[in-house]
Amino acid sequence: MAQVETTVNQEPEVRYRRKKKRKTFDEMTYHAMLLPGMAMLFIFSIVPMFGVVMAFQKFIPAKGILGSAWAGLDNFTYMFQLPDAKQIFVNTLVIAVGKIVLGLIVPIVFALLLNEVRLKLSKSTIQTIVYLPHFMSWVVLGTMLTMIFSFDGMINNFLEFLGLERIMFLASNDWFRPLLIVTDTWKEFGYGTIVYLAALTAINPALYESAAMDGASRWKQTLNITLPGMFPTIILLGTLSLGNVLNAGFDQVFNLYNPLVYETGDIIDTFVYRMGLINMQYSFATAIGLMKSVISFVLIVISYRLASRYAGYKIF
Amino acid sequence: MIQSKTLGSRLSRLMIMLALVLITFVSLAPIVNTIMVSVSSSTAVNAGRVYFFPVELNFSSYGQILNDTKFWKAFLISVERVLLGGAINMILTILMAYPLSRSVTQFRSRNKYMWIIVFTMLFSGGIVPWYMVISKLGLINSIWALVLPGAVPVFNVILLMNFFKGIPKELEEAAFIDGAGPLKILLKIFIPISMPSLATITLFVIVGHWNNFFDGIILINDSEKIPLQTYLQQLSLTRDQMQNLSVEQLQQFNKISNTTLNSAKILVSMIPILLIYPFLQRYLIHGIVLGAVKE
Question: With contacts defined as CB-CB under 8 Å, which chain B residues touch A208?
Fold first, then answer.
């Protein structure tokens, strides 16, 4: 509480009234500060939420939301009958879970390796470089990766050099998913290390000293001190990633896929984009989007509950 | 830390260093390759001879970019977007984070606002209603369509709010006794000591605006008004036109597209990020860890 007596000599009642007036003034200022941002959120986030009624309509743009006929759950039943819908659901799940698992393991291993570097300059240089891909757009990376993974690209030249067959990475339904998972991990692992490195600096150095005294090797120290020290952070990030199992990464897929790999690479977000904004099946696209939003919402709430219960995590 | 100097430990340290160098190289490889492609001759590139060194050094693609008015138009729109959108994002983030960092006793409605904000982060109406709202407001084809819908970066607001919460109460109490109001406390105390956090968020905001290509695709129909990333996207990966191409045709398409020129364009598009990144990234660890993981 930031309320401190202003003047000591005043009558208690006057002082109280002043304090109260001041408090009301402060609160009004807070409301005023929040107003512009809340207005933006209202227009661009909350108003579109009412648009989900389209999912229960046979929406026709000329008639608008109020004039279009109701369709009940037709859009949803259609979704469950459509074989494509099942396929994109599976694709999304497989790609997202792959990214979560690899995206959890690689930064941990990398943070452990980096922790062994004692020279500050080389440590920060490595960090600066490996964070960099995180800050580049998937348009840029998509173009680069298309070049490198193309049939006569660098990777295939290397495979041939090793005496292996050339692979159509970007046109092969066997290779497209692993490619998405690996390249996403490549882009994000450096950035993901930040939190683990912070967790490592929080470990008490005295633990290492006494372990070394007892004759524990670096490897033993890593196993018995460093890893347990990182464990809460690992659990926390693992739990929180649960909310992302339906987010397979629109930007990446959109910039790398093509009709040849729709079978394994098409995800909910890209499908909704094509249905809604290219094929103009507004109601159907909204229904699929709503399905995703609701499931994601439930998963996020569950993951935050778990995180706050088992890792003491709170967002606010 | 005590470090034994046995052969085994030296060997393991060497292995670790090697692994790290390899990982760092892999992180940088695509970028280095793109740089080399951009400064090599097209024939060498198409023959697949360019890896990590230039072949038949040739800067003509950069000369071509200089005369490419469409590229620079898109570049300028992206700059405008970053300046305008970045300023709006930062102002709104600060203005929202400060009241939300107050305790409920100081600001009674705080939790009500918080619930609304978090709800907008967790749930959305989906892309179709979102598009319709923006189009109904008549924003299509204007720079405001790229700036206003994302005016409040909710994640950043929470990040900064958590940072503000960590500021010692004594600091603002002193200002309070001197009669400073909320705005003054925010401007004179909170903002100056939150510089690492603000630098981190500024980096996020700039990168976010600079890298966004998707809103340019759906909200801007006029090809004269698209931002740079959208321009690049349409340039090298015109997916919609490739809908019905066969594998051979796709191969052919890759051949005729000017890889050298596209690489150069991509690299020029990265320059702004590469310029600001080194200055702001050193605050990253501080900014993210303090703001994000709240225990």
Answer: 1-2
The answer to whether the Cβ–Cβ distance between B12 and A209 falls below 8 Å is no
Q: Which residues, 6+ apart, have CB-to-CB distance to A246 below 8 Å?
A: A92, A93, A96, A268, A292, A295, A296, A299
| ipTM of the prediction | 0.87
Chain B residues inside the 8 Å CB shell of A190 = 27
Residues A111 and A195: their CA atoms lie apart, in Å, by 9
* CB contacts, 8 Å: A260 with chain B: 247, 250
Tell if the CB–CB gap between A258 and B239 is shorter than 8 Å: yes
* Residues of chain B numbered 126-155 and touching chain A (CB < 8 Å): 126-134, 137, 148-152, 154
Which of B31, B117, B245 is closest, CB to CB, to A41? B117
Name the residue among A131, A143, A286 with its Cβ closest to that of B262.
A143
Q: What is the largest CA-CA distance in chain A?
A: 93
Sequential pLDDT tens for chain A (316 residues): 444 445 555 566 777 777 788 888 889 999 999 999 999 999 999 999 999 999 998 888 888 888 888 988 999 999 888 888 889 999 999 999 999 999 999 999 999 999 888 888 888 889 989 999 999 999 999 999 988 998 888 899 889 889 998 898 988 899 999 999 999 999 999 988 988 988 888 888 899 889 988 888 888 888 899 999 898 889 888 888 888 899 999 999 999 998 899 999 999 999 999 999 889 999 999 999 999 999 999 999 999 888 888 877 776 6
Distance (Å) from the alpha carbon of A144 to chain B's nearest alpha carbon: 6
User: Closest to B293 (Cβ–Cβ): which among A43, A46, A195?
Assistant: A195
Find the residue in A nearest to B262 (Cα).
Answer: A143
